[in-house]
Amino acid sequence: MDLGLKGKKAIVCASSRGLGKGCALALAQEGVELVINGVTPETLERTAAEIRAATGVTVTPVVADVATVEGRERLLAACPQPDILVNNAGGPPAGDFRDFTREQWLAAIDANMLAPIELIKATLDGMIGRRFGRIVNITSVSVKAPISYLGLSNGARSGLTGFVAGLARDISRHNVTINNILPGSFATDRLRDNAAGSAKVGQSPDDVLEEWREGESSGRFGRPDELGMVCAFLCGTNAGYITRQNIFLDGGSYPGTF
């Protein structure tokens, strides 16, 4: 399927590995020119070279933390007028909410709510003026099915979801869409970190991962490329009637009807 994206420009946040990398690669396969970022230069350069070799598209790596003003300024300097914005950031730590400090709450809100809103604010009017824009936020199934040990993520990502729900309605007439992808358990470093944070005395992270895997309806964890393909589809020129949606990618594990 040709998504009609060849020659479009995209900023894909937190894309040196994991789900962000999956989105970047899927968009590159559609001919989208990319600006990607990460905080580890070696990993970022390796990812950029890998995507260039696989697709032949222009990939600009930017060492930056999207949770900071300086990091966002570097991204926007590299691509001031993107057609596509994929908001993504490493999730905050797991744990008992009783142990979270005010500073941890503010850091979670900065990274997983305010940073995406600031990038949307910086790029939205250009999209409206060109009458094409696709914004995809990678959030979490915890937005709809909160996870007790991910309280920081539950709160910050739900705040972003509420904000974009109102905005998306106002801008859809301009062929600018905003959708959220809610990943379940994907085979990423983040999942292993959560497993380590959730391990009880005598448990290893691998023990926790195996327990979680057995609890998955699909019997497996998702692959980053699977999420990337959904992201690319939502960014396609013929997906303009899909907006303001929270799209589960969890292998069917969510137990609700709606």
TrEMBL record:
UniProt-listed Pfam families: adh_short_C2 (PF13561)
Source organism superkingdom: Bacteria
Keyword set, alphabetical order: Oxidoreductase
Transmembrane segments: none
EC number: 1.1.1.100
A GO MF label: 3-oxoacyl-[acyl-carrier-protein] reductase (NADPH) activity
CDD domains found in the cross-reference section: BKR_like_SDR_like
Keyword Oxidoreductase: yes
SUPFAM superfamilies: NAD(P)-binding Rossmann-fold domains (SSF51735)
Family, similarity comment: Belongs to the short-chain dehydrogenases/reductases (SDR) family.
Protein name as it appears in the record: 3-oxoacyl-[acyl-carrier protein] reductase
